[in-house]
Amino acid sequence: MPCIVLLAFLAGSLASRAQPRVQAADGDSLRLGGQRIRLSGIDAPELHQTCQNDKGKPYPCGVLAKRQLERTIKGPGLKCETVATDRYGRSVAACTVNGRDLSDVMVRSGWALDTTRDGVYLAAEAEARRARRGMWAGTFEEPADWRLRNPREGPPLRPRLPRR
Q1: Residues contacting residue 99 through CB under 8 Å, at least 6 positions apart
Q2: pTM, 2 dp
Q3: Sorting pLDDT into bands at 50, 70 and 90, what band is 14?
Q4: Of 71, 74, 87, whose CA–CA distance to 36 is shortest?
Q5: Who contacts 98 (Cβ-Cβ below 8 Å, separation ≥6)?
Q6: Do the Cβ atoms of 135 and 106 come closer than 8 Å?
Q7: Phi, psi at residue 124, to the nearest 5°?
Q8: Do residues 92 and 38 lie in contact, with contact meaning Cβ atoms separated by under 8 Å?
Q9: Cα–Cα 20 to 30 A to 122, which of 43, 48, 109, 135?
Q10: Which of 61, 73, 67, 42 lies closest to 136 in space, CA to CA?
C-alpha cells in the first residue's frame, strides 16, 4: 500500500507555507490540499448531526467531533499510512500524531465509535463510555444510522461553526 506522509507545522513557519495545509474535514477525516483522507476503524458524527446532552438538550456533536480532531492534529508530526480506498475514492488511513493513533484519540475522547471487525478500539470506547466523555455524556444516534435517516441531497454542505 502507498504511504502518505503528512507533516503539520506550526502556523506562520516557513515550512507551513511550503507544505499543503492539513485540516479536519469532520470528526473522522482530514483534508490535505484537495485530497480527503478518512481515518481507519472509526465513525464520528456527521457535521450536521446533533446529539442530546444529559438534560436532553440538543447540541452540535458533529461540529464538536471535528473540533476535537482539529485540536489533535495541531502541531508537527502528523503521519498517515493508506490501508484502503473507500467507495467514494477517499484514502482510508491509519494516522498518528507524534506516535499517538488518531483513531484511538477520537474514540477515547468520546467523539467517535469503533468500527473495526476485531474491536481494536473497543477498550477505548468502553473507557469513554464509563467516563461519560464526548457523546457518551448524553444520548446520540450512531452516525451510520443518522446517515441512513438523513441522506445527502446535492453537494455536501458546509455548516457554520458556532462561536467558540
Answers
A1: 77
A2: 0.82
A3: very low
A4: 87
A5: 75, 76, 77
A6: no
A7: -65, -40
A8: yes
A9: 48
A10: 61
